[in-house]
Design a protein that fits this description.
The chain is an alpha+beta fold and 231 residues long. It is 47% helix and 14% strand. The chain has ten helices and eight strands. It has helices spanning 61-79, 95-104, 112-121, 123-131, 135-139, 146-157, 159-164, 170-177, 180-195, 217-229, and strands spanning 3-4, 33-37, 40-43, 50-56, 84-90, 200-201, 203-206, 209-210. Helix 2 (95-104) packs across helix 6. The longest helix is centred in the N-terminal third of the chain and has 19 residues, at 61-79. The chain is globular, with a radius of gyration of 17 Å.
């Protein structure tokens, strides 16, 4: 079952302009990773017969399960084999989700798949720490600048610790969570997705067509395979 999308009010972070986007140097990253548009990455060949779009949320447990179950298979057996181009779009559900999305985009383009997988697969750990935040910690999530609020969430949840193990410095992470231009872009894109047929996470589209009732690998895989057989 997909995780339902919360009310649009949950996305209202009053994000103001603007800072420069962090380290997005050029359209093509390492290992066949492409920056499709700000905050949207893809893996696999541009001329693959199918483009699979994933609408995912880092605070959605079903999305974490999907990544654990199918992430490697999609990357290796489908994208790596040139069969499917996989595109990742952030269906932001809440401020912590936005924090994680900004961190997944941190650094050079080619780092996104590893960041995405690491954040998703450690979801229970960092969300558990976030839920255990003290009242003093929680007070920082609703006061101050948008950047300071997201940075506090990143530190308190352990997301910063996770990313530091991946080679990022605290300065790097503060710059990425402080990227208000990208934060605004991701939030606005997410609201557009919700208005245009994404009613739960994860959700999927193939070649631009949303797949009804498809929120897990067991229902997605046959739909990919049958389309590939017709190519």
């Amino acid at each position: 079952m997909a995780t339902a999308i919360p009310a649009a009010a949950a996305l209202a972070l009053a994000i103001a302009p603007v800072t420069a986007s962090a380290d997005q140097s050029g359209p093509q990253g390492a290992r066949g990773v492409t920056l499709v548009e700000p905050g949207v990455h893809s893996i696999g060949r541009a001329d693959a017969p199918l483009t699979l779009t994933e609408y995912v949320s880092y605070t959605c447990p079903h999305c974490a399960h999907f990544e654990t179950e199918a992430g490697d298979t999609l990357a290796l057996a489908y994208a790596g084999a040139g069969k499917v181009r996989v595109e990742y779009r952030h269906a932001i559900r809440d401020p912590l989700d936005l924090t994680a999305a900004l961190l997944s985009n941190c650094g050079k383009i080619g780092r996104f798949p590893g960041n995405h997988a690491a954040i998703m697969r450690a979801q229970s750990e960092w969300m558990g720490k976030f839920r255990a935040a003290t009242s003093a910690q929680r007070a920082r999530y609703s006061t101050g600048t948008v950047a300071s609020r997201l940075q506090a969430m990143g530190r308190d949840s352990g997301l910063y610790d996770l990313m530091e193990k991946r080679g990022y410095s605290t300065t790097d992470l503060d710059r990425c969570t402080g990227d208000e231009m990208l934060a605004r872009t991701l939030s606005e894109k997410a609201q557009g997705y919700f208005a245009n047929g994404v009613n739960g996470t994860p959700s999927f589209a193939i070649n631009g067509t949303m797949l009804a009732g498809t929120h897990d690998w067991s229902t997605l895989k046959p739909q990919i395979d049958i389309r590939l057989e017709k190519k």
